[in-house]
Design a protein that fits this description.
Elements (H helix, E strand, L loop, with lengths): L2 H16 L11 E6 L2 E7 L4 E7 L2 E8 L2 E6 L6 H4 L9 E4 L4 E6 L11
Antiparallel strand pairs: 1-2, 1-7, 3-4, 4-5, 6-7
């Protein structure tokens, strides 16, 4: 192993140990659903439901289940918003950019702020 590799390994191990505790605190309370026109809905994460949101390309479907939220269906062709998966922590976001629909979890404790992000 090279000296640079050893230094990298020594730096990575403590960081990996700290990761499980990062972001602990109150869970987010709501998912904000926005479009280009503005806020469409603030859905509580403690109630399972499905919301259809109209965008320029058609409907995006937002699913809330088990205290988390995600895009369940997308009107765009790339479907990258579906790859974001379940949003679980305060500040987590997902966006269907072509359809102009955006999700963000709110109401818990942010993992990062502008000073340490």
């Amino acid at each position: 192993m090279t000296r640079a590799g050893a230094v990298l390994l020594l730096c990575a191990v403590p960081a990996a140990g700290a990761a499980p505790g990062a972001g602990t605190g109150p869970a987010p309370a709501v998912v904000e659903v926005r479009t280009a026109a503005g806020l469409v809905a603030r859905l509580p994460l403690d109630r399972d439901r499905t919301l259809r949101v109209d965008g320029p390309l058609g409907q995006s479907v937002v699913e809330v289940r088990g205290g988390r939220a995600r895009f369940a269906r997308a009107a765009c062709t790339s479907r990258l918003c579906l790859a974001a998966g379940w949003l679980t922590r305060d500040g987590d976001t997902a966006a269907c950019v072509p359809n102009r629909v955006y999700l963000r979890l709110r109401g818990g404790t942010h993992r990062f702020d502008s000073m340490n992000f």
